[in-house]
Amino acid sequence: MTNSNPASTPTVEKPMTWPTADFSRVPYDVFTDPQIYRLEMDKLFRGEVWNYLGMECEIPAWGDYQTTWIGDTQIVVTRAKDGSVNAFENSCAHRGARIVDKLRGNAKRHTCPYHLWTYNLAGELTGVPLEKGHNGKGGMPPCFEKKDHGLRTLRVAMRGGLIFGTYCDTTEPLEDYLGPHSVAQIDRLLVQRKPKVIGYLRQKIPGNWKLYNENVRDPYHASLLHLFQVSFGIQTPAMQGGIKLDKDGKNTWNHSIMGVNDNANLGKLSDAYADTGKLMPDLEMHDPSLLKIPLDLGDGYKTTLLSMFPTLIVAQVDNTYAVRHLRPKGPDAVELHITYLGFEGDTPEQLHNRLLAVNLIGPSGYISMEDGEALRLVQEGVKARRGDHSVLEMGGVGKPHDTDYLSQEISIRGFWQHYHRMMGFAPAGNMNRDEESA
Amino acid sequence: MTASLQQRVERFNFDYADALNQRRFAEWPESFAADACDYRVVSRENHDAGLPAPLMGCYTPGMVKDRVSMLIKETLTYRQMYLRHYITNVRVNEELDGTITASANLLVMQSDLEGNSSIYIVGCYEDTMVEIDGQLKLRKRLVIVDSFSIDNMLAVPL
Phi and psi for A251 in degrees, rounded to 5? Predict the structure, then answer.
């Protein structure tokens, strides 16, 4: 049956636009559109970016390997005999099968299970069974050269024990890419003591991977969504702190500093919570040992969140130290991989404190569990808002800049500024005021 | 008829699950020994690799209470789901010194407010129990989660 009612005729969707040059408006389509996701996999993750691949302490010995993800591509990271670190795609040069099927381990060579093509630790093809055939019959043609059929490799660079890889020959040197604030904080968190992994945590979040990037560049939400954090003075709007951006706006160092007046200031906050009834400064714990762990770096930073484009976060929340890495799983899902760190030489008491403080972070963390929920709600909320935009004006509009205050969304705009450039979208800043007010 | 230890442990687990599934969170700490207890949720990955960090770790009775008091006081923003525990393959052993060790398989299904159900958690319990005033209490409960890529969040204990 045909329906000629004009009201049921499909309307042409509004095209995606970036109406403001300061990225204070973000099109919701970037969180939902499968075509944009495909474009990100090609242009962004294989473009001029340094992708996080793991930590050196995870593969200390010859042959140690682990797998990780760049976007939706699985990567194997290996330690060679000479101590160098290599990275290659986990897909056979022959027929594309996954070669390494364990998360991590040790092997001196990697053999595809299907036809036993064998690769060395640099990803070069070293063996093809029946290459010359059998009894003079079959085999590969004379023009077949093993050197032409290695795995797809990445260029690797390291800083502070963090391993990065890039597909692109023109990606700038790693330190320039990270910027001075990231480099200084990586050194502060991961170099002055030698880190070791004390556990992994994983969290499947039903939201776009860029929503997580917004979340970690958003100190505005930190003291509103995470009431535990405010109630117990881990990060509050009354605290000293701020954000510093790299030259592109893509990498953010967000920090809060413990101060002597924090408790008094916390009491004055009720007006700032605008009658939400959510502030509970009188909350107490039955066993407050979690809150009494002394900051072990002794430099007063309560939180340090280093968010590095496109998928890496190095985070200190109180006495927890963790690397968070995003594995995009389509436009509407991301898996968060958390590597939880202790340090060589930790006393049994320090280790106990880390196993206590882990209750703050991860999918069960008193603070961080709520981020997944917030992302789920955004993803659900924006699904049908094609052609529409979010509003990022907290902390001021205009060109993104550093701040010495925390109630801001400026660092989120910095992320979008760089994302927009990487994706090669049409220039931003053609806001049509009539359309906006319609 | 006197219930066997096997039957008593199974009934203990069913009551434990009922308190969580019916959101009577204040009852959950009563399953633990009040003088000393240990409750951990660990991923299969960390458990098998000997990595000590848990997903949740409560090392004193006070910490056990705090885990649910954050839910009771609504400090946390988390998704309201109907949860159902399915606890099977219960195996109980009584040691010579009177301590009781037990294990069980665990499946937790979740259903959202629009009636969509899915598997939330697959794992197992490894327990040490004591008898206090004629009642079984957990001295230690280790929850090993095979499905350790957690579906968004783990707010309610397992």
Answer: -110, 135
